[in-house]
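Lecture 7 notes. Example A: sequence first, then its structure tokens.
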Amino acid sequence: MSEYSDNDYRNRCSEKTLQTNSVGFFMDFVEVVKQSVGQTWIQKKFGKLKSDSERIRAVYTADETKEIGLNILSNVQEVYRKKDATVSQLKRLEAETAFEQNDLNKSLIFYSQSVMRAPGTGQCSSFDSGLSLSLALWGRCKVLMGLKQYSLALNDVQLALKERLPNVFKAEAYWKMGVCYKALREDKKSKVAFDLAEKLMDKKEKIEELEKSRKENVETAMTNMEKVLPNVEDKNNKEFPCASKKLSVKSTDQLGRFIVANESIKTGETLVVEPPYVACLLPEMFGTHCHSCFTRLQAPVACPDCSNVAFCNTICRDEALSTYHKYECKYLDLLIGSGMSVLSHSALRIITQQNLQNCLEIYKNKQKEKFFSLCTNSNKRNGEDFLQRTLMAAFLLRCLQKCGYFNTPGNNVVPTEEEFLIGEYLLFNLQMLQFNAHEIFEQLTTQDYNLKMSKLSYIGVALYPTVALFNHDCYPAVTRYFVGKYIVIKSLRPLAPNEIVAENYGPICSRKELKDRQRILSSRYWFQCECNACTYNWPQIGRGMDDLSQQIRCPTENCSNIFTLPVSSNPLNCPKCKNLVNLDERIRLFKYCEEQYKIGFNLMQSQQIDKAVGVFYEALDTFHNVSCPPHKETHLAQEALQICLASYGNVSNTLKEIK
């Protein structure tokens, strides 16, 4: 047991991976069961069970749990935010008022709320003649055109027509389509739309206005540049298709499985570009990000049944409706109300994103799936931890029964054999995700994209089976950023062959003291870190690192000796390799690196990001060749490089500048 271990904190961390929200009902469910069965049964009987199969079955069959468990699980029912034509109409009227006042951004917000709450066409004929959705889309189209967002406006007018836009608006609708197509440089489609509009018009003066529109040039608003996924250098890794062939996996009893370098790696190499095996958006981001692809919403498209989630376009919506959302839709408020964590939601999503037969096939052949070999730490779990996770698996399984995942009405709480297998699958997911999931973030900047003011905002959680194999180091070898839901791993410093390629799980050596890092890692991830920063207790910036003497590597190849400055300018004998060496050139390069860091910082502040990145790459390579950490300026340069690289991924200029 580590001297930094904190069992109470560890238990709280573990519980938080099941239920994040303190006001949710799930942990109350757990407490009721615990009080009923008692600690002796939990530790002596349930805690002694050997497999997930035994554990999930015990909830339903053990004399101590079956009555109370079945009674509580039988209460699971649909709870979701339904459509409301009254709210939709009210929001649309507010949007029209804002539009008349020329407050287009405020109008867009209200129209989007109207779109989200509008029932499907014809579902509520007592409001807007059942046309609430088409009217909301039609109004938002006009706002988007005012904002010169012609691609989004075109989507809305097309959707409005599909939703039976009243005939009185159709001539104008095709007219607006003509303008949008013209702005998007689709001249043939623009002509067809204008011609249709002209045929439907009955007023001469309107036709004259339309003819002006045909001839006018249309300027589009500047939009955020679409982020591009980088290419992996030296791809064709046979074992891991998403990774560079410079990486491979090794395994030891002490470290488990981990990634090492097969050959030399330079700073800035793209080592992995991986899509998620599963990804879930944080509930607090449901109104700001696409539920499917995680991009920022501008003109959201709604689910036809619930008002809980939003999508950036119909492609994302239809993909979600054909897979996971058709099962989760009417139970989302129940799931959120339980207080369950996004990791628990991810455990469910691994199931709902596949149909039943595919899930059963995957689980029955799990030895072929890489993610089933990821760490669960099941051998370190106690009976209480297993009971909490098993009850969560049972709750999620009951939701699957009720939502029709098993193609039955879900009247029976006690699972069938097929359902028990899915319960086992859920229980495995709840253990595995605790130690292998990654938080997806976007970089928030001010309106002028000032990176100096930027900060990271977490928007979701995902599992990346390749990246999950990277071990932790308090002085990491790589950094990560996200493009949509894809994770990009880049080297943060040069690496030699056979060197461990480690990332960072949160506590960084330059900012957190040893005791804090060890407490976090042992409590959240259940291991004691033995990286160099921990072994030698490196000081932090502002707490001793500033006062460290400069260090220079021996210039003799393969010699590991480090000289501490100052030293004589004359040649001197290395105590390790015994060679006579001169350090002048290495000292010069050391000072050159510090100068280059300053240049990189200045380039970053002037938003010349590509140039700054190039300067940091070269300087960091040089530094690690002639010196070694800890070194304040190098740590700061790496922090700056991480900020620069994050700007190549998810970015939103929604951060308010504090004046």
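Example B, a different protein, same format:
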Amino acid sequence: MENKDVVMESEEKNTNILKEGKAEILVQEKNVFYNPVQEFNRDLSIAVLSLFAEDKNGVVNTKNIVIKETIKEDKEPSELKTQDGIRVLEALSATGLRSIRYAKEVKGIKCIVANDIATRAIEAIKKNIAHNGVENIVIPSHEDATMVMYQNRKTRFDAIDLDPYGCPSIFLDGAVQSVSEGGLLLVTATDMAVLAGNSPETCYVKYGAVSLKSKACHEIALRILLQHISAHAGRYGRYIQPLLSVSADFYIRVFVRVFTGQKKCKENTTRLGMLYQCHGCESMTIQPLGIKSPSGGFKLPGVPIVDQHCKYCQHKHHVGGPLWLDPLHDQNFVSRLLCKVEEMELGTLKRIQGVLNVVREELDCPLYYTLDRLMSIVRCDTPSMVLFRSAVLNAGYRVSYSHANKISIKTDAPNDVIWDIVRAWEKEHPAKRDRLDKKSPALAILTKESVTQVSFTLHPDANPVSRQKRLSRFPLNPESNWGPGTKSCTMINREKAHLKRKRNQNKNEQNKKKAEEEDITENVVSESKESVEESKLEA
């Protein structure tokens, strides 16, 4: 026993302890993935899961339902003691930090399966579970995440957390089948370049939708992910209800509940639509895939909703989608969540409160414009946000921020009204029209007549409460290189990984030198051939 204690002490001396929330993680190897940037993600997930657990356990207790369930722990399934609480799966656990925090900070959890396919990750998870003393709640699982979900389609989990490095698509089919009725899916996507329109063909392959380059790209990304989850659920007669959808830092995170019902599944055509965006003035128009008739049935919409050329600037349209058109958030849930986080100890509490307050003020209408881009299209000075919002409100329409952009104009006003306001501002602050190209969208927009009576008189609702209270709504990055970090290399042979890194060092410079050497060689060979031919001619 004494020898074992000595070994444990020596191991602890050589191990760094990382603290986050109420959890402590033993850091012995750098190659086990941990990303401090995601603390906001984990804190928000803990808050949402806490509120969900309260709701779920309340339903279970009132119905007095007792369910016997089994899950897999490494090799053999072990039957758990039946008790009140929810079952949670963290499919891609890495260090086990998130699962341990769930166990120590969320009340009403029966068990958590912390799964990872990497051997070193599982070793780290087991050590961290023992170090934090949560063996009775957190169960390590060394398996492919999709297999864990498919094997639990009958017993099902109450909540499934998917936080992959990149695209979550390959896990969604198993997730929508293995989550319980009314269960919670917590899904992250970090491949924002694909979702934001840099590679629309890749986005279609991964998400079944075409993305567009737009100032509203972050909300487009959220709506593409939601339609993708909805499509997977619909194959099994299930539908989703978004509770909260957040774009933050370099990723998006959605919290959705999953229910069963063929009738509700048929409403998906009314919840989805295509996006038409003008290539010139970037005006956006939404075309729903279906319309619900007053009699309760469904009918196809009339097309086309836009002409081949934009009516504002005569440029062509680009088409993207399908997108999720229904609300991104359940406002009742968001309000309750705000009350819930006030009683919690979270490292990013101020940011969570700021974001949730903006979300609560956010309109349900799809997408948004940005103020600076609207004015740059017409080459005009930019008004203050309060003045522009006042003009929209004075015209009789609603307006809000989007939590995804600090200079966003999210409104139910049609494009005609938006451009009328832009024209009215340009009259007071004239652009240099003589410098505008005749084919530019700016000249086409500014020369059209306005219909809307525009007033820039300050409106009492133009300055939202979250802005008046100076909440942390859009915080700056706390340090340089604030991003997703490097992908976990726990499954890669260290020596091979080292050789690959060494081989790829200064790769661009090496390629340039190689190309230069090849050019020199070609020149020498050609010169030698020419000299030989000249000598032959002289002979």
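Note on Example B: The longest strand covers residues 179-189. The chain has two domains: 10-335, 371-468.
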